[in-house]
Amino acid sequence: MSARVIIAIISICAVVTGGFASNIFGMLMNEELDRKRPGPARDSFTHWRSVRSFREYRNSCPDGKLHIYAMASYALAALGFIGFAVFMVLAYQPLVVHINSPVEGAAFTAPANIVISADASEGDYTVSRVDFYQGDTLLGSSTTAPHSVTWSNVPPGNYSLTAKATDDRGTTTSSDAVNITVNESGKLSPLR
After folding, report:
1. Which of 13, 118, 165, 179 pairs with 66 at a CA distance of 20 to 30 A?
2. How far apart are CA 19 and CA 86, in angstroms?
3. Same domain, 152 and 130
4. Are both 117 and 42 inside the same structural domain?
5. Which domain holds residue 48?
């Protein structure tokens, strides 16, 4: 089981436990208030919004149970919220692709045979194809990882390479451009 799946399971448990236990402590808090505060008009936990009312409730419960219930309720609600946020971050893993070879600024000698490779991944979907481009010209496609194509007999010039990944839903995304140079045979690449 991957670390991502384990963290997702823990996050779901935090959401369920935090929300359920927070409500329990909220009910205990209301019950404690009902015992401590006389009179028919009793505010519910959800209406405790002002500092003045919180002080009133705190002073009406000198044994400290109210404080414990309130802090536990807030802490567990925060735990549930954090768990939900972590789960959403894990659940949303966008389609990403980047060229790992050649690197930015690489230089070759014509006629060059350049192997272009890219990494592509997505959270819960499968990358079905990676297309490799020089400018707007398609150089080739790969349907299996590791994704790569060989660009053969490349003439001298400056080129901009990109990779475009497509997942099994038809969603696409493109990598950042990688700029390379192919020099004439016998010509040294410029110093950087």
Report:
1. 13
2. 15
3. yes
4. no
5. 3-91
Considering only residues 107 and 48, tell me which one the structure prediction assigns the higher pLDDT: 107
pLDDT tens readout for residues 3-51: 556 666 677 776 677 666 666 766 766 666 666 565 544 444 444 444 4
Asked if residue 76 lies in contact with residue 18, where contact means CB atoms within 8 angstroms, the answer is: yes
Same domain, 174 and 124: yes
Is 177 a member of any domain? yes
Residue 108 and residue 32 share a domain: no
Contacts for 66-72 with beta carbons within 8 Å, 24 or more apart? 66/29, 66/32, 66/33, 66/36, 69/25, 69/26, 69/28, 69/29, 69/32, 70/25, 70/29, 72/21, 72/22, 72/25
Confidence of residue 108 (pLDDT cuts 50, 70, 90): very high
Last residue of a domain, one of 59, 91, 123: 91
- Domain count for the chain: 2
What is the helix (H) or strand (E) element at residue 182, kind and residue range? strand 178-183
In angstroms, the CA 182 to CA 110 distance is: 6
End-to-end CA distance of the chain: 46
Kind of pairing between the strands at 107-109 and 178-183: parallel
The model carries a pTM of: 0.54
Choose the weakest-confidence range: 56-60, 99-103, 119-123: 56-60
